[in-house]
Amino acid sequence: QVQLVESGGGLAQPGGSLRLSCVASGFTFSNYAISWARQAPGKAIEWVSGMSSDGPYTYYADSVEGRFTIARDNAKNTVYLQMNDLKPEDTARYFCAKARSFIATRFDDEYDSWGQGIQVTVSS
């Protein structure tokens, strides 16, 4: 079955960095887009960043543009989210999600599998 497992979260200071990883299994990884989403307590899910199956197309939320970078290694079935210049408002639970196709979108219905998520807390 499809599995997505996030790692790399934790506590960071404002201005610091973290790198999240999402290791996938149970499907042909290179055929599907993967995105990162986050949810803070009491807030709606925010689509943070996504990448198409073969990498040329990416998107970023305005709130993270210029600070976060998504990358994928299809040989390792892994997607990364490098988060730099972290801000307290980046505090949330971060999820990776598998798209239904090779296209990365910001629409919940376009994703059929989610990881359990990992907490990122930015605080001094």
Q: How does this structure look, described?
A:
The chain is mainly beta and 124 residues long. It has no helices and eleven strands. It has strands spanning 3-7, 10-12, 18-25, 34-39, 46-51, 58-60, 68-73, 78-83, 92-99, 111-114, 118-122. Strands 2, 4, 5, 6, 9, 10 and 11 form a seven-stranded mixed beta sheet that branches. The protein is globular, with a radius of gyration of 13 Å.
Task: Give the helices and strands, then pairings.
Layout: E1 3-7, E2 10-12, E3 18-25, E4 34-39, E5 46-51, E6 58-60, E7 68-73, E8 78-83, E9 92-99, E10 111-114, E11 118-122
Parallel strand pairs: 2-11
Antiparallel strand pairs: 1-3, 3-8, 4-5, 4-9, 5-6, 7-8, 9-10, 9-11
Name a few traits of the molecule.
4-stranded antiparallel β-sheet; 48% strand
Brief characterization of the structure:
This protein has about 120 residues and is mainly β.
